Amino acid sequence: MSLWHKRETYSHTESKPTNHVGIGSANRGVGHVETYFYNPCSSGGFADVDAFEAATTLETNEVTNSAKYCDEAGSIVENLRKVVEEGVISNGESRGVEEPGTGMDEVQLTSGTTLIARERKILNLRSHMVWSQAQFINLSQNPRITVNLIPSSLSISTVSSRATAMAAAEEYTDTMNLKVAELMKEVQLDYSPTTTKTVDDFVISIKKCINNIPEDIQVTADLAPKFVKDIGADKVEFKFKRPKSVEIGGSYSFQCVVKPDVNVDLYIRLPKECLHEKDFLNHRYHGKRCLYLCIIKKYLESSSIAKKVEWSFFQNEARKPILVVYPDVKSAGLPGLSVRLIPTVESRFNVQKLNIERNNLHVLSEGVSEATPMYNNSLLEDMFMEHGAEFVKKAFTGWKALQEALILLKVWARQRSSLHTYDSLNGYLISIMMAYLASESGKARLNKAMTVMQIFRITLDFIASSKLWGSGIFFKPQGGSDMSKEERKKYVQYFPVVICDLSAHFNLAYRMTTCGLNELQAEAALALKCIDKCRDGGFVELFMTKIDFPAKFDYCMRLNLKGKTDVSAQGFCLDNECWRLYENKVHSLLKEGLGYRANFVRVTWQNTTSTCSINDGLSGLDKEPLMVGISLSLPGENGATDKYTRGPYIANKEECQKFRNFWGDKAAMYQFKSGTRECAFWECEPAKKHLIVKLVIEYVLKRHLSLEEDKIMHSVDQLDFSLVYDDGDLASKTSPLNIFEKLSKSLRHLSDVPLRISSVQALFSAYRKTSVFPPKPHPLANGTKAGNRITSTCIQPMELEGSGNWPMDDAAIEKTKVAFLLRIGECLQKDHGIKYCSSEEGVDVFLEGYVFRLKILHERGLDLLNGQAESYQVKRVSSTDRHLFLRSQHSSMINGFSRRYELYGQVVQLAKRWIGAHLFSASIMEEAIELVVAYIFQKALPFSAPCSRISGFLRFLRLLSEHDWMFTPMIVDINEDMTPDDIKEINDKFSLSRKAYEEGTGSLVTAMYLATAYDKGSEAWTSSCPSITELKRLAVYAKSSSNLLTKLIMQGQQDSYGWECIFRTPLNNYDAVILLHRDKLSHPEHLLFPSELNQEVVLIRSMYSAGKLVAQGSASKTFQPFLLTKGKTKDLQDELYINFDPLTCYSAFPNTFKLWYDSLGGDAIGVTWEKENLKKRRREAEDDDDIKKNVMDTLKDVGKAGKGFVKGVYLLKVPK
């Protein structure tokens, strides 16, 4: 067995390395590196350092004759020997291994050379400890030298690619540090004298107000009768005494507050005189705690210092209210300032009485006395809160890197809304974990030699992969012995997550659930992937990307439980609160019911909001809906859209009985190839398979929780109205895909043509499953009279077998192509009876109700475009061949991509529908839309690839609005085969295009830079559109729609109008509007929302006094979108229009205005004036009235040009 094992890694295929030396992450971005790790169990290990030194030799590649390099290399070898011998690491100590993969240490050598060792597992060879997974990179004066620790040799490589990688690594370091520094300026509170004085003055005024409250006031339950009754408290009367102390705590005390909200925690220590030694029983303490705050609230509200005093709840726990006080005047530089008054209590109750195994709710004492660990920890939390806060403050004070890393982790968690919740992570728990990692209890995984990003990464790595989550995290008690294994097992038995505090008496993470922990670890693991794989170390993905419920989860729903008595039937507050118990019940039911359909189920009920009032008691805390988020598995069999819920095989009697008990009447036995098993079957049409999960959920919740359908608010089907389902399945025998295969076979077998057809490829979007309206067979194109709809056109190119007989002149090539196409049509009709017709655009072939347009891409052009020729030859390739080649490449790639991601096509369909509905059809090509959506699936981080159409659509809208189009190219690597050189080439071309624009030496031709393997310069689909103006407009519309969609998913009702607004575009954003005759559209049935004339006039005139009807016209009788089936079939066929859409027939007024329309079926066209045309009009006009008259005359001409098709032309805004 080899003593040393070789491991290879390669740089990520982005424009810049994703990691760099010195920021605490694995250096996978520094070119091609070799790492080696030592196997101490293997034979032949080095017995001592001398043996290691003897085995070390020096090799040079390109610098053999350079004494300078050799001397430096020799110095490095000597320094390495010293490091190995002395075991020197960053803090000057020799430390053993605790956990691998938790960061990076720096090894400082005597010569000043800094060696960065990947991983913390750095050990002393002399004491039988080794470097494990250690990669050393020389950062001395010669950046070309890299050193790999190898027992047999110490190779010095000067390969130029490594020099490039090192330079890129340094550039990346600067970029990442710069971005983090800028982020810190935005989110870190400035603790200037002005800021601290503002906070201190407000806190002092609160203290004075509290200390001025008269003592010995008799406090009774009458101050909050409903609250006291609902928690079941008794004996809550006491005489008011001033608090023992009022002290600032929380993150403000150690300068780690994260803006924009500046929350200052103020600990109000309750005096012993107000509490009885047995107040830990039956919620007495919680009752008195609330009543004590009631007195404080009363006097604060009567003072002049507070603008507002609100009730809130500590970590969403209804039995632990707190007060939030807002200053009466706006604090300079602190617009979000508030002070939270949090009661604490010290040494009043016997800690042993609050042991997790004891029962302190005697209302539960009937029968067997059950432990109340959650209730006990609720009291212990208040008892040790100040003690824990002081420990955290001590750990962070004076350690700037640790403070900044905490702020970054808070920003990271805050962007993930489902993490920043009561049952998962909060700022205090993050600080506790970091304090643990920096303490002796946590093996000092964090030390002061580390950078901010090192600490950030090590903490994430601990969260994601530490085994301690299973056995519990325990601080070593100060001045005491470690907790015994038996005591630790008790904590793990009662709590899914354990972080035991320094007192060893209570669990800091007692609210955290298994579900919350699993999500936290998954997010931490994704964050580490972002650091490794994303551009600039994943800065945007980690800190700038919002990961909320609607975007993260494929399936979101809300349960309206207002007034449902089952929730609190046993009482509001037992050991745990009734809302948390109901959460667990819903979670377990959905997890069992969905099974393999769901990868993850998240249930949260944020029922305690700032609008709640203690005076109303706890009965009103069910107003907010319970949120459910589900990450679905992939569609298909044994996936989210499986028609069967597959249970156990019949041989397993016990499991079969459990299955029948759960599913009731739905359970039945079904025969499969693998055997007979219990199943539940869900009847569903092929086009509505995405609704199977909805059917499962509704059945489970109705059966087990008696929840009716109107109480379950889904979002999965709310946008289905925008997509008209086909009557049949695309996989059916009569689908265009199957007819295409039939035609393709006929074409390839044609023999009576000069050149044999080598291959046929489909270009129509239905072939790649991205068509909003897949073509349907037209009855007249089929030779029958039934039906009355015209067909969609399917366009295809063909590659012909290479031949030297092709002419070299472009015009001659095109004429030859036409001749070949005509010959092909004749042969098809002669040999196979397939009808065809010719036109200027090509030859149209009629087959089984479909029309296929044939085009030729000849091999000479293909070879030239594939790079098998000189650049001057490529320029000679005709624009037709170039366009066909690009469409061919795109169609081929997207077709493969849609097979890889089944949901991809559905998301594209929604995206195209939205683009059309907001009149952007002329602003962005459908291929560009397909690439942007593909980017969501292919570059999913910080998410996983979407598994529902609605989550994918939301991410599409957000990507459009949030991507930095001006400074960042969108690189869509469909086949994931781009090399670093390809990425560099794309970035170089992008930089050149932007540099010329910024310097004013050129115009920005490509505003939306979409680069692919076949189009690195983004010339195919976005070179002409969208323009900068169009892209900005598109981004604004996308942001508005994404915000609305997010709101509807989280708060919307089941009414259809709100969801329709996502596809309703405001016509008042245009200078003029052209309304069309609906019955003259090529496909009136595709129209989403008819634009009623009267409604539009009212809208226009109410919003713009200048709104005026300029022209109107009646409908033409020349064109009819539908045909009556009277008369001869041949005569009717002659009336068919192939690929005709009057909406796209505009050529007049080319430079006068910009037209915005919906190519998928809109009856309105938006008009905006071109800037150059407006300038010309201003120069020619004498005054504003002249400009208005000129504009109106132009619009009248528009009405004349569109006679018979245009219903009315309205002027909304007169240009000035």
From TrEMBL:
PANTHER family: NUCLEOLAR PROTEIN 6 (PTHR17972:SF0), NUCLEOLAR RNA-ASSOCIATED PROTEIN (PTHR17972). One of its GO terms (molecular function) is RNA binding. This is Nucleolar protein 6. InterPro entries: NOL6/Upt22, Nrap_D1, Nrap_D2, Nrap_D3, Nrap_D4, Nrap_D5, Nrap_D6. It comes from the Eukaryota. It is found in: Nucleus, Nucleolus. Residues 1-17 have a biased composition (Basic and acidic residues). Keywords: Nucleus, RNA-binding. Transmembrane segments: none annotated. Residues 264-396, 401-546, 551-706, 731-897, 901-1054, 1067-1208 form the Nrap protein domain.
